[in-house]
Amino acid sequence: MFELLLYWELVASRMLMCDHLHPPDPYNQIVEAQLRETGFYYVSQIGVIKGQSAMINALIERWRPETHTFHFPVGECTVTLEDVAVILGLPTNGLPVTGPTMSSFEALEAECLHQFGIAPAKMNMYVKCHIMLFGKVLFADKSGAGVHWKFLPLLRNFGQIIQFSWGSACLAHLYRSLCRATRVDCKEMDGPLTLLVSWAWNRLPFLAPIPGNPRVFPVANR
């Protein structure tokens, strides 16, 4: 009965965009070592998850902002920090990912000059990150191709990146995105949709297109 109910929700739900990335070319040893040092290596290996709008919409219909849980006929459940660690391979212990947004162009220009040595175009208030894990997997905007530059200050000291609990920030971002998506005027959803889709396939395996390999880590690469 639960499968049938969710199937009809998939058919009747409103459509949202779900764009994701292509897997990167193999890294050389230096780049791989640096990614491992930051704690983002496993995320960098996550490949394509094509549009799963219907399933995402059905999950949104079941999401309750008051409790941050999905309400299914069999009970409540939600995405946890353990899921983030297993699905994306992100660190979940450490310092909180927080800080001022500094939305003025002057602050953005100063930050880019400090880190990259060049200033952004004045009409672009987003930094198009070349690191695919930041641009499309963890904190993507609704275009699926950009990420807000407010994270840049946390990347100033390369050796300290691993000290932050990126997994906690990613989970909080997913919760906020789901809460926003429940609004009647919302047409698109941002956030870590790879995490959401992989979680659904893992926890509700009858939705998965093909059986996953239980030995693969992170789970998103199954």
UniProtKB/TrEMBL annotation:
Pfam families: PMD
InterPro entries from the UniProt entry: AminoTfrase-like_pln_mobile, MAIN-like
Annotated ranges, domain Aminotransferase-like plant mobile: 39-209
GO annotation terms (biological process): meristem maintenance
Protein name: Aminotransferase-like plant mobile domain-containing protein
Organism: Arachis hypogaea (Peanut)
